[in-house]
Amino acid sequence: MHEMSLAEGIIQLLEGQAKAQDFQRVKQVWLSIGELAGVEVEALDFCLEVVSRDTLADGARFHFVRQPGEGWCLACSQQVAIHARFDACPLCGKHQVQVTGGDEMRVSELEVE
Fold first, then answer.
1. Spatial contact of 65 and 31, defined as CB atoms under 8 Å apart
2. For the range 36-45, what are the long-range contacts, defined as Cβ-Cβ under 8 Å and sequence gap of 24 or more?
3. CA atoms in the 13 A half-sphere facing the CB of 27
4. Is the pLDDT of residue 6 over 70?
5. pLDDT tens column, 90-110
6. Which residues pair with 67 in a beta bridge?
7. How far apart (Å, rounded) are the C-alpha atoms in residues 56 and 14?
């Protein structure tokens, strides 16, 4: 369950930003999570609830914005939507698709006080 370490990393990032930007509390966090990032959103939500206790994010609301997976098919030279790594190209059926998006996770927005 790597979501626990992801949640701890998010809280560390928030604490670092609190020091750098001088805020005391996090009210809401928007996380952008790619479809190909390998993150179980329900597990991450649970882990964030656990690791945020007694931190500046205690009681914060976490929003999860899913980003679609994208790839470039080397066989047909087209940008295509993919839902898993190593998916075949939906246009030509070849398995020569390089992931070009949807494999990242980042904090996209914060509401603080």
1. yes
2. 36/69, 36/82, 36/84, 36/85, 36/99, 36/102, 36/103, 37/102, 37/103, 37/104, 37/105, 38/2, 39/3, 39/6, 39/105, 40/3, 41/66, 43/1, 43/3, 44/3, 44/6, 44/7
3. 4
4. yes
5. 999 999 999 999 999 999 999
6. 34
7. 8
Tokens 């190209």 -> residue? 89
Please return the burial class of 57, using the count of CB atoms within 10 Å of its CB with bins 0-12, 13-18 and 19+: buried
Name the residue among 104, 70, 109 with its Cα closest to residue 87.
70
Q: What is the pTM of this model?
A: 0.86
Q: How many CB atoms lie under 10 A from the CB of residue 30?
A: 15
The first and second tokens of residue 30, run together, are: 């928007």
